[in-house]
Amino acid sequence: MRFFQSWRAAQYDPENKITYPDFPAKVPGNIQQDYAEAFDFGDYIFADRVKQFDAIEDNWWVYSANIDFERKEDETLWFVAEGVDYIFDILLNGKTIYSYEGMFTPAKVDISEAKKGDLLQVVIHPHPKREGAPATRDQADQSCKPPFSYGWDWNPRLMVSGLWRDAYLETRGAAFLRSCEPFYTLNEARDTAQVRFVADCDAPVTYTLTDMEGRVVYSGNSPEVTLNNINLWWCNGQGEQYLYSWTATAGENTLSGKIGFKTLRLVLNAGAYDEPFGFPKSRYPAPITIELNGRKIFGKGSNWVNADMFPGTVTEERYRELLEMAKDANMNILRIWGGSGINKPEFYDICDELGLLVWQEFMLACNNYVGTPHYLSVLEREAVSVIRQLRSHASLAFWCGGNELFNGWSGMTEQSEALRLLNKLCYEEDFGRPFLYTSPLCGMAHGGYFFMNPEDGRDVFEIFAAASNSAYTEFGVPSMAPVEQLRKIIPEGELFPPTPTAAWLEHHGFNAWGPHSWVWYPTIRKYFGEPKNLEEMVGYTDWMQTVGYKAAFEEARRQWPHCSMSINWCYCEPWITAANNAVISYPNIKKPGYYGIKEALRPVMASARIPHFSWKSGELFSAQLWLLNDSPEAVSDILTAYIEINGEVIKDITWETGEVAPNTNKMGPTVNITLPRLSDCDEFTFRVKTKNGAGDSSYRLKFIPDPAAPKVRILNM
Amino acid sequence: MRFFQSWRAAQYDPENKITYPDFPAKVPGNIQQDYAEAFDFGDYIFADRVKQFDAIEDNWWVYSANIDFERKEDETLWFVAEGVDYIFDILLNGKTIYSYEGMFTPAKVDISEAKKGDLLQVVIHPHPKREGAPATRDQADQSCKPPFSYGWDWNPRLMVSGLWRDAYLETRGAAFLRSCEPFYTLNEARDTAQVRFVADCDAPVTYTLTDMEGRVVYSGNSPEVTLNNINLWWCNGQGEQYLYSWTATAGENTLSGKIGFKTLRLVLNAGAYDEPFGFPKSRYPAPITIELNGRKIFGKGSNWVNADMFPGTVTEERYRELLEMAKDANMNILRIWGGSGINKPEFYDICDELGLLVWQEFMLACNNYVGTPHYLSVLEREAVSVIRQLRSHASLAFWCGGNELFNGWSGMTEQSEALRLLNKLCYEEDFGRPFLYTSPLCGMAHGGYFFMNPEDGRDVFEIFAAASNSAYTEFGVPSMAPVEQLRKIIPEGELFPPTPTAAWLEHHGFNAWGPHSWVWYPTIRKYFGEPKNLEEMVGYTDWMQTVGYKAAFEEARRQWPHCSMSINWCYCEPWITAANNAVISYPNIKKPGYYGIKEALRPVMASARIPHFSWKSGELFSAQLWLLNDSPEAVSDILTAYIEINGEVIKDITWETGEVAPNTNKMGPTVNITLPRLSDCDEFTFRVKTKNGAGDSSYRLKFIPDPAAPKVRILNM
Known about the structure:
The structure is a homodimer. By secondary structure, chain A is an alpha+beta fold. Among the domains of chain A are: 2-172, Galactose-binding domain-like (Jelly Rolls, Sandwich), CATH 2.60.120; 191-262, Immunoglobulins (Immunoglobulin-like, Sandwich), CATH 2.60.40.10; 298-439, TIM Barrel; 604-704, Immunoglobulins (Immunoglobulin-like, Sandwich). The first copy, chain A, is built from 11 helices and 43 strands. In chain A, strands 2, 3, 4, 5, 8, 9 and 11 form a 7-stranded antiparallel beta sheet that branches. The longest helix of chain A is centred in the last third of the chain and has 25 residues, at 534-558. At the A-B interface, strand 21, helix 5, strand 28 and strand 29 of A face strand 21, helix 5, strand 28 and strand 29 of B.
């Protein structure tokens, strides 16, 4: 039986063991949020009110509860805290009974000697900060606390801690089932599974396995069972998300979960052995093609960052809402960015159900995590806990050491002890699941994070057409927040035109990464001139984000199978940003860019390789036609392509694709059209229609009118 | 006490336990060599006589000895076989008492029940061969037997096995010292060492430490000692090879060894963070710069392959002879190529003494070693044995999974279980020592293996000047064997002109790797025309190898610190080849190419970047001058450069280098000379003389005379 307690929290003086006036605490949650609520911080997202948290950043805190529970004579009593952020002690009646560093390992403490009404406390130490480091993420480079809360280029510095997952008292009888975990191996044909349950219990355990139609396929005392004619689990777009349910029962205790059967390997991309060519001959790009159940698939999705500045407050409902939107956008993979750490278990359950493959990084990002004895010992404990918690999830695709650790701003290498340790632990605890040291590896790429590269003037169409990476695992096209969202964060008088005021800066409209991110005012001016009002300005950035993401994702798909993955930066955000590469404005507002991605990721679709975004009167427009198919079915269609400008259609051509095999694309002809001279037209659309419904595409492009350009005829064909 | 036995060997029928007529066996050795001697194979190196071994390739064998020893009442008796190649059983009086797969783990078997005269036998199983694999190294891809003996492009297929290391009876009293190993850590200033001995003994152990001057710096019972003001161990060319001697004594038992104190890391090469530039941004080259005792150094050396087709027969004297030549050639590192496996312990002792850093690969090469349960379990046991045997050597620089495993012909990746296992084992057993998955990694390069690339006509001068790799860890320029050596392997009538007869083929004069390797007849003809006789022909290949290796090594040094290592393929050879990239003809004949390398690796030297090898009358010759300094001292000199042709000197120029810092090069001016028109001259020499003795250089280049070329004046200046 579990007994949830009523907790109160307070600031704490560890030297004198003095507890200051207390306030109600939500568990799970984050103590700083409770404090802000109790002490009237107001809407902390508005303007620069987040700075109020600075004053309490280095506090000690204490959670207290006078415990309440019922138990039978022969039961032991335990205090279970599933996750405590980050360094903490557990005290019973003022005496320390447990101490730990790390937020991903449950604390399970025998407190059988406790009586009703006894004082149970969890003391939270100040956040870990490497001595001598500046007040940035650098402070996080000797701890396993996810570094995002130290501040990043899209979220403020807002350091949080506390009982971020459930905490409760638990009574345990003789037949208590401490844990049960299923493991399996598949035969070569992938139609038979050997399932093995590993339970930790002092009493006999019975197991059941039920299929998705509710049929019991096994029930018995043996922890090992062979299942024939199994259904495989597939990611979104490749098949069914078939999950078997299991229960393990000992006396009155039952644990339950799901199993999805799959094999997943990371294999070399097509053509990888040909690069580089000739002598002296170096090595090839790292393997980054997902082979799921023997089928090579294109990975398409987004980078998941923490869904809230207060991760402890995120509920299953919020996860579900965001993840269903990801599935609805035709994604099949999410990269759980290392800087955010690991999500609550519900997140992974939902990914199993929705078919979203999980690229799970450990809690390292953009730092050099030097392998000191203390750091390595904490990392080992925390990593083992994480691996054991997640390894049975069908959606778990592969592990990764963390974000951009091999790049200059981090400075780690294959020789870094922390990464060799993680590789070793994954090998030991989760044999057969791929492990990447970091992203990007050789051949893979991150960036850019703009619609147009200010250094060379190339737009996202040009940048990706010229690139030939094995996987684009981060790339961003920013847009401003929707106007109604901006009103929630920027004082009325500062809304337009945007200037680097405290509110805009705190919300990363400016100076996030160079002076212009993420509003990129100069880019807006270059393509559209000076915007007249906020609505128009936001609209321009939405246009660029929508067409930009569509261009980048479709280009990556066209590069398949040389390129095997496209994952934009990023999906969601932990508070309302003024401008960001994300396509979900906090907490759940779809920006227009979301629909650009959704369109670009349809399993079967017409697509066009368009050389660039902005076109002039008289310029020769050309677009190479493609039929993209990353579905497991063969398709064929007839495509019609034309420009629609000022309500008129210019030159439609048709292309009969013939059969396009499963998970294969086909290149068609290039359409050539000389653009007309016009005077009153700021945009045009290139459309590709499909006769058999494979999926139309349209690209909204910028038009620079020039009545003096060579005269061309507009035809309705 | 150790008792060495007198062994005889025989073919064996395992089913009927029948032993065929026996013959004397050398231990350590290889049973096939004993058999060949006993059954008159003759000089197996000559012509294609090596094929005689085919008939016995799949034999079972047995070693037998009627044991002889003395022991005291209270002593136990052990049979110790330090290495048995490859699958074997140990039998006492016909009963199997021990079975094992793997040649790098000593067998230590308690045979205390044995009496004098008892029959001790070691049954050797047939060589491991993956079922269904062709009769090539492919057969070795599921075992830990080094694959070279299955045949390679410079050595014949000649599969060997047996008691390749010492085997003896050992009596053990109560104070027997089973093992003792020293470990140490240095403080940050590297002047104080914490030494810790780990001994396996049931009696008290006393330890001594003695410095190189013979002073006892520690003597006592504590296994932990702090040494102040230590002397560091340096590799050849960077400082002293300072070694402390230790002994561990328990009763009458003593073990002893050496300690050399050093730190060694692999760090990123200079400028690695700048590559590749711009977005989308991939990762950087792998770290391959050696930082020894905090000093970044240029790694220069050669690839060590097995010194004999019968590795069991190699003695300390043969190792020493070859290794002293390597030191004398100014090398500071040897890459122990994975295909050859691991050498005997004496090899590493000598490397410690001579300052030759050891890049030690595991026994994987050019195959896809799939991680089956059986293979991984053997690999784990064998790798742990290897690591524990070598980790205390001062010369041991870093581990590497094996040769070219990430290249197309192997097909392994970072996800291969075997490599992840090796990484994990090295982390666990030898924390802090770098580990490479394979060579080459991203940025590093192997090849070419020719003086001129037949695909594009570029010679080795051009190839390396155009390359920009982080390390050249294999590259070859072949030459033919010295004439007197050729006479030992090729029948008289076939010596000239070389044609692909059985003898030439078996010795890899032709068809080693494409039709022309390693004689490269077309290249000889291209530069020199048809050779008149064998001596002339060999001389041409020596010329190319000498000047080619000099060019390639010096170019790599000029690319420092972007490039941090240059290791040619290869140093020695296991039998006499007809032509090879090696510079030592088996067993110990220095080819002229050896001196080319020795010259190119002098710590301080004049060098010239010369565009190519072959020059015509009237052509503009240019050479960029350099002073190369990879010594730990600053130098300066005055260089004089000129062409010497037909005994005349053309245009000498001087360059005062000014100070050139330790481990740094300096680029000087480019010399430009229009070549004269001559009719009777086939070569010329470009010379750079140094006034202060930094080290002259000369380059022997090909001249194509043309009296019709523009007239130029020869000047003596």
